Amino acid sequence: MSLRFLLLIAVLLSRASAVRKTRLTWVNGIGYNIGHMHRDSPMISKIFGGKTVSFCHNPTAMTSEEDMLGYVGDFAQAGSQKLGRITAEVNELVKHLKSAVSEVGKHGRVLHIAHSQGALVTTLAAKQLTPLEMNQIEILAFGGAAALRKTPETPFARCINYYSVNDPILLLVPSAVQALRSGWVYDEDEFCFLAPRSGDPIEDHGLLGPTYAQALGWEGQRFQSEYQSLAFRSTRTLVLFWSTVFHFIWTKALEIRQFLITMVAKTLIWIWSRLLRLYQATAGVMNRQQQQQEEKEAIKAAISSVAGTNKPAK
Question: Least crowded by CB within 10 Å, which of 70, 81, 156, 277?
Fold first, then answer.
């Protein structure tokens, strides 16, 4: 083995051993019920290389997709939080983040996704976190109702606030508006403004909408590069590849099986129909022969009867 190859192996092993223990958390915005959380969690997990998403559900007052009264209730709650009110959702997120930090240990890292109202809830929750806890948390905010910043009071490991330039929530975040109007990114790239992908402000505001999903993909790639070992990523790629191959083969095998079953069934039906026609034809011939025989016997009987009647008496 060459010295260069040995050095490469040593670097890869040292990098793998230095991989931190991580947790991926997520708090949602308004209008999200628990079904939405379970629906979207696998998609977020896939973006982050299969990392399990531990979400903290920010409940909605909406009872259905058409419940506008519940939607207004969510907005009213967000308005009170904007004024600094600590709600049950804030306290629940505090517990969630403290638990995540505890699970990763003092050298671990928590990546926290906050969308829309979830960023506002996170801002209020940060007031109940210790500086050491915040130092282990990376904030990934998307269309946040509040901008999260890395300051002496909130010493997060990292903060990034993504905003689509057509996101109406920008009007509620003065610091984001100031950054957008300045025409340049400042404070260690804490703001990133995105060109809308769909042009519809509501669709572009969605976490998994076309605009924020793209930024979420960037963060997912960074996470995999920074916090997942080369061995893990390579193994996962192989597993996904062979899973896809197996799924393809299995699907084709089921299609072939179904085709063969269909062909056999059609063949049996065809044979049965032919046998049935043959039986019917044979039965018809036999019936006609029997009828002809009966007719002959009847004629003979009639002739015999007539002959017996016309015979002269002795």
Answer: 277
For CA atoms 137, 140, 145, 146, give the dihedral sign. positive
The closest alpha carbon to 78, from 124, 47, 113, belongs to: 124
Nearest by Cα to 93 from 25, 169, 21, 162: 25
What's residue 232's pLDDT? 52
pLDDT of 54: 97
Report the alpha-carbon distance of residue 225 to residue 152 in Å, rounded.
28
pLDDT category, 240, cuts 50, 70, 90?
low
Distances (CA, A) of 14 to 28, 109, 224: 37, 18, 16
Give me Rg for the CA atoms of the chain.
38
Q: Give dist(CA 256, CA 247) in Å, integer.
A: 14
Taking phi over 0 as left and psi of -120 to 50 as alpha, with beta for the rest, 304 belongs to: alpha
* Rounded-to-integer distance, Cα 282 and Cα 14, Å: 87
The total of other beta-carbon atoms located within 10 Å of residue 225's CB is: 11
- The 10 Å Cβ neighbour count of residue 124 is 20
Average pLDDT over residues 124-137: 97
Q: Return all residues near 34 (Cβ < 8 A) that are at least 6 apart.
A: 57, 59
End-to-end alpha-carbon separation of the chain, Å?
Answer: 136
Mean pLDDT of the chain: 86
Q: Which amino acid is at 103?
A: E
Find the mean pLDDT for residues 280-288. 77
- Helix (H) / strand (E) element for 120: namely helix 117-125
Q: At 107, list the tokens.
A: 């050298």
Residue 37 pLDDT level (bands cut at 50, 70, 90): very high
Given a cut of 90, is residue 238 above it in pLDDT?
Answer: no
Q: For residues 164 and 143, what is the distance between their CA atoms, to the nearest angstrom?
A: 7
Dihedral pair phi/psi, residue 138, rounded to 5°: -100, 130
* Residue 92 identity: E
